Amino acid sequence: MHIDKIKLLNFRNYINQEIELDKNINIFYGNNAQGKTNIIESIYLCSIGKSYRTSKDKEAINLEKDFSTVEIEYSKKDREGKIKLELSNKKTILVNDIKAKKMSEVLGNINIVLFTPDDITIFKDGPQKRRKILDIMISQLRPAYVHNLNTYLKVIDQRNNYLKQIKFENKSEEMLEIWEAKLADYAEIIYEYRKEFVEKIKAKIKEIHKKITNNKEKIDIEYISDFKNKEDFKKVLEEHRKLDIIKGFTTKGIHRDDLKIYIEDKEIEKYGSQGQHRSAILSIKLSELEIVKEEIEEKPILLLDDFMSELDKERRESFLEDVKDTQIIITCTDELELENEKKKIFYVENRKSAR
Ligand SMILES: Nc1ncnc2c1ncn2[C@@H]1O[C@H](COP(=O)(O)OP(=O)(O)OP(=O)(O)O)[C@@H](O)[C@H]1O
Ligand SMILES: [Mg+2]
Predict the structure, then answer these.
(1) pTM of the model
(2) Ligand 1 atom, smallest distance to 350 CA
(3) How distant, in Å, are the alpha carbons of 158, 224, 225, 236, 249 from that of 244?
(4) How many CB atoms lie under 10 A from the CB of residue 131?
(5) Could you say which ligand is closest to the alpha carbon of residue 59?
(6) Dist. CA 272–CA 109, nearest whole Å
C-alpha cells in the first residue's frame, strides 16, 4: 500500500502544506528542528489515531492556532481511502468522510511500521516501551484488541482506587473479587493475542537476524507474563491482595508483561553491545513488516525517523534491498547517498514567513 498525499493545516510548524509522496522512497532531509519528524508524526496519527510523541493531542496544534487538521489519501490494492483527523478541544477522525464513532475505527486503514531513534534503547528502558511495540503491532491488525486492552486497564484503575479505599477508608476487601474476576476475563484475551504475536515474531526473527548479522548471531525472543490461565490468575491476584493494599496498586497482571531478547542465549539488556541492540530492534521491526505483509497481503508503509543514520552504508543498502517495493518515508539531516534507488527528495526548512 502507499500514501498518495498528505495535507497539513496548522499542524505543529506547518500552517498549510500539501505533500505528494512517491510510491517508493521519500526522503525528508534538513537541519534539526525543521519539521521532518512532524511529517512522520502526522502519518502515525492517521494510522494509529494517537501520537507516539505525546499523550496530549493538543500539543500538535500550531501554537498560534486553535485547531489543526491532517488529511491523508492512500491507496491499497483493492481500494483508495482517506483519513482525516481534526484536532481542537476534542479529536475527531473521519474515515472516508464519515465520522468515526470510536477511535479504533481508524486502525487497519493505513498500515505502518515505525522506526524511531527511541527504539534503539528499548531493551535498556523499562518494559513499557516493549509492551507498546507489541500493542501497536497487534492493534493495527486486530482492532478489537484495543477495546479489550483499554477495558482491562480501566478495571486496573478501578481496582487500584479501591485498594486505596481499603487502606485509608477501611472498605471491605471482599469487593475486590468483582474486579478480579473481570480482570481475569480480559487478561486471558489479551494474553492470547500477545502470545500469538510473539509466536509470529519468533517464527520470523531468527532467519531475519541471521541475515542482518551475516550469520554471526543467534537471536531469540520470549514473552514474559504473570498470566498463565484464568483460574491461576484469579488466585495470583487474591494472593497479592495484602501486598497490593499496602502498595496501593495492582502488582501482578498483564499490564506488567514484558518481552525478552536473547542474543547467543544471553539477555540483551544485560550483555548486549550497542550494535547488538540496534540489530535486534531492526530484526523485530523487519519481522513486524513481514507479519503485517502476510496478514494484509500487501506491504505496509515504512516510517524511518532518523534511522538510516544508525546504519552504515553496507547495512543501509542491504536493508533497502530487503524492503524493495515498499513505500518508505525517511527523515535525515543529510542528503542520503542512495544510488540506484527510485526516490523523491524533499528539503525541509522551517520558514518563518510561512506563518
Ligand atoms: N505545536 C507547535 N506549533 C508550532 N511549532 C511547533 C509545534 N510543535 C513543534 N513545533 C516546531 O517544530 C519543530 C520541530 O519539528 P521536528 O521535530 O519535526 O524537527 P526535525 O526536523 O525532525 O528535527 P531533528 O532533526 O532535530 O529531529 C521545532 O521548530 C518546533 O518548535
Ligand atoms: Mg526529528
Answers:
(1) 0.92
(2) 29
(3) 13, 21, 18, 11, 5
(4) 18
(5) 1
(6) 36
CATH 3.40.50.300 assigned to 1-111+301-355: yes
Q: Where are the domains of the chain?
A: 1-111+301-355, 123-299
Residue 152 to residue 233: CA distance in whole angstroms: 14
Grid coordinates standing for 342? 527510485
Verify whether ligand 1 is closer than 6 Å to residue 350 (CB atom).
yes
Task: Please identify, by atom number, the ligand 1 atom nearest to the C-alpha of residue 306.
Answer: 27
CATH number for the region 123-299 comes to 1.20.1050.90
Distance CA 264, CA 262 (A): 6
Ligand nearest to the CA of 33: 1
Q: With the C-alpha atoms ordered 71, 47, 295, 105, is the resulting torsion angle positive or negative?
A: negative
Mutation pick for ligand 1 pocket among 31, 34, 65, 303 (CB with most ligand atoms within 8 Å): 34
CB neighbourhood size of 150 (10 A): 13
pLDDT tens per residue, range 258-269: 999 999 999 999
Amino acid type, 87? L
Distance CA 204, CA 275 (A): 20
Show the cell assigned to 176. Answer: 475486590
Q: How far apart are CA 203 and CA 220, in angstroms?
A: 10
> In 10 A of CB 282, how many CB atoms?
23
33 lines ligand 1 (CB under 6 A): yes
Q: Rounded to whole angstroms, how far apart are CA atoms 9 and 17? A: 7
DSSP 298-346: SPPEEEEES-GGGS-HHHHHHHHHHTTTS-EEEEESS----TT--EEEE
Task: Indicate which ligand has the atom closest to the C-alpha of 65.
Answer: 1
**pLDDT tens-digit series, residues 182-224:** 999 999 999 999 999 999 999 999 999 998 888 989 999 999 9
The b-or-e profile of 184-209 (16+ CB within 10 A means b, else e) is bbbbbbbbebbeebbebbeebbbebb
* Strand extents, DSSP E, 58-124: 68-75, 80-87, 91-95, 98-99, 112-115
